[in-house]
User: Fold Glyoxalase-like domain-containing protein from Poseidonocella sedimentorum.
Amino acid sequence: MAGKPGPARAGNIGPLGRYLLPNGTDPGSNGRDHSAKGATMSGMVLDAVGVTARDMGASVAFYERLGFSFAPWTAQDKHVEAQLGGAGPRLMIDAADLAEGLIGAAPRPANHAQFALLCAAPSEVDARVAALAEAGHRVEAAPFDAPWGQRYATVADPEGYLIDLFAAL
Assistant:
């Protein structure tokens, strides 16, 4: 029948104009209410930050060390997401080949993609950075007391995305 969506396949667009994963699900829905709660006058809220990964296992392990909790996943999954404490913007990790299929070009390595995570205390900044360094991850800026009154550090995920960790002094 005309105007009726067919079975979902990789590359299909759903009835709301959003890309559907091969299993027919909307990769951004995650069972969440996407109504405009908390939206500004423009109607937008920051809902998610996305990164791509050539090695999903390495990226998931890195973000788990930062405190993110992912739903159970398998090596075949091309999209995973998590939230810190079950609130705020989601972190989405897409396999590089999924991202290439969506945008028609291979993802380029990050040169200055960055986001910041607020820690509960300066000691948490130190502990998380130490755990990441011990696991072999790159520390771009070791923890330091910044002149603006925060304990601050910068680490890089396996793909080169920069993550700042900070806490009030």
Q: What stands out?
A: Confidence is low (pLDDT under 50) at residues 1-11, 15-19, 32-36. Strands lie at 48-53, 69-70, 79-83, 90-95, 114-118, 139-146, 150-156, 162-168. The CA atoms of residues 7 and 58 lie 33 Å apart. The longest helix spans residues 122-134.
